[in-house]
Design goal:
By secondary structure, the chain is an alpha+beta fold. It is built from 9 helices and 4 strands. It binds flavin mononucleotide (FMN).
């Protein structure tokens, strides 16, 4: 399938077939795609919690408008942002670049100072907004990746992030839940799969008069 066909094939799946699971290899490929998502400076200020346990998902469902995807999907991906991105995170990133690219850390001094300057000037609210933008980029990459892999997915904002943080003990790890993707395979009973896509026209969405 070509990219546009794959993007037509995908839809926000409402009902998954619970018996159809994502394989370990598929999950690995998807994790790799998310890992390769671009982020500002490359700092990747987020973590994805992968929830499979049925009992935990049953608890989470209560705080996600009882949406069936939470329990019927194969895996629930919980995208969470770092609560605070600090100079320590920058230092760790610099070490990583130096080791991967076999560079002396001193060669990265200007880059490090630029990142320090960027994160130092942010208020906690700006920091949260910025990290959230990074995680949504990863969400977009994940949704395109699932489409190309013929994995069904539903991005989800319809949930209570505070309850998710509590149930999954995410705050204690320094993160806060932002958005979810339920992944798996569509069920035949999901009537939304046959609905036409509703999108603005290209002429409305783009302005080429420049
Ligand atoms: C960030 C985000 C959050 C969403 N939250 C939900 C949700 O909680 N439940 C749901 O059923 N669909 C959710 N959707 C799906 C959208 O309604 C859907 O993507 C949109 O209507 C376009 O339809 P399509 O994805 O099937 O093409 C969400 C989509 C996005 C991108």
């Amino acid at each position: 399938m070509k990219l546009l066909e794959q993007l037509q094939w995908r839809y926000a799946t409402k009902r998954f077939a619970p018996e159809k699971k994502i394989s370990k290899e598929q999950l690995l490929e998807l994790k790799e795609a998310i890992r390769l998502a671009p982020t500002s400076f490359g700092l990747q200020p987020f973590k994805v919690f992968v929830v499979q346990d049925y009992d935990i998902r049953k608890k989470l469902q209560e705080y996600a408008w009882n949406q069936p995807q939470i329990v019927e999907c194969s895996h629930l991906l919980v995208f969470a942002c770092k609560e605070e991105c600090t100079r320590k995170d920058v230092d760790e990133y610099i070490q990583l670049i130096a080791s991967v690219r076999k560079l002396p850390v001193e060669a990265l001094n200007d880059f490090k100072e630029m990142m320090y300057g960027w994160i130092d000037k942010m208020t906690p609210e700006q920091m949260e907004e910025w990290t959230t933008r990074q995680v949504y980029l990863a969400l977009g990459v994940a949704l395109t990746a699932t489409a190309t892999m013929q994995i069904d997915a539903c991005p989800m904002e319809g949930f209570d992030p505070i309850a998710f943080d509590e149930i999954l003990d995410i705050r204690s790890k320094g993160y806060g839940t932002k958005v979810l993707i339920a992944i798996g395979h569509r069920s035949d009973i999901d009537h939304t799969q046959s609905m036409k896509k509703v999108r603005k026209g290209v002429d409305e969405l783009f302005d080429e008069n420049y």
